[in-house]
Amino acid sequence: MKKLYIFDFDGTISYTGDDIAVSLNEVREKYGLEALGVSEVLKFVGYGARFLIENTLNVPGEPLDKILEEYKASYFVHCCDTSVPYDGLAEILDVIRERGDLAALFTNKPLKIAVKTLDRFGIKDKFNSIYCPENLTKRKPDPEGIFRSMEDAGTDTASTVMVGDSKADIDAGRAAGVKTCGCLYGMGDREKLLAAGPDFTVNDIREVADLKL
């Protein structure tokens, strides 16, 4: 059976931390708040934009949904300022496809922003499916996006791996019953990632294509 490689976005296929921080701080400045450093912002990346805003931009008297939309609008503008795909990403996606296997994207990143960035990277068409909060009912660590990706690809749990840099990715993979791969080069908390117990770990995105599923 063909294999399915499901990738997270932030910190897995691209370093996006600087653009996220710029966008967040643009909105913080609007509300008279001091800028946060990138390392502080990254503590809250991986569980979706709402989680990020809840923990970094909760302004008394201002509706959270309003602030969330302001952040998303800012991030849509800045999402490709400095973010680039990790070296070798396009090549391994081609290797996966040439073998007759498939790649999918499952991320808590807003769909419009994910698609814009993938288009800018020139790799959107290399993914068999793309799942974000807008086309799912639940976010990671819920495994809904993994199940939907497998259904689209026609694969089973034994031939599927969830690849990501955060505990949320590993937890989602385990909940779905698929293999998991922790990306040690990513933006997520390394200790929490390892404590989640991934089946594989990689130090470079190019190693993903060599995983023994």
Tell me the CATH superfamily of the largest domain: HAD superfamily/HAD-like
Our estimate of the beta-strand percent is 5-15%
Helix content: 40-55%
Main sheet: strand order: 5-4-1-6-7-8
> What fold name goes in the CATH topology slot of the largest domain?
Rossmann fold
User: Which residues sit in consecutive blocks of at least 5 with pLDDT less than 50?
Assistant: none
CATH class of the largest domain: Alpha Beta
Mean pLDDT: 96
Class inferred from helices and paired strands: alpha/beta
Elements, N to C (H/E): EEHHHHEHEHEHEHEHE
**Helix count, DSSP H or I runs of 4 or more residues:** 9
Radius of gyration: 17 Å
Task: Tell me how many strands there are.
Answer: 8
The CATH level-2 architecture of the largest domain is identified as: 3-Layer(aba) Sandwich
The number of domains? 2
How far do the termini sit from each other? 11 Å
Shape: globular
Largest sheet: 6 strands, parallel
What does this structure look like?
- This protein is of the alpha/beta class and 213 residues long.
- It folds into two domains: 4-15 and 85-210, Rossmann fold; 17-78, Orthogonal Bundle (DNA polymerase, domain 1), CATH 1.10.150.
- Helix content is 42%, strand content 13%.
- It contains nine helices and eight strands.
- It has helices at residues 17-30, 38-42, 49-56, 64-78, 89-98, 111-121, 144-153, 167-176, 190-195; strands spanning 4-7, 14-15, 84-85, 102-106, 130-131, 160-164, 179-183, 200-202.
- The chain has a six-stranded parallel β-sheet, with helices on both faces.
- α1 packs across α4 and α3 packs across α4 (64-78).
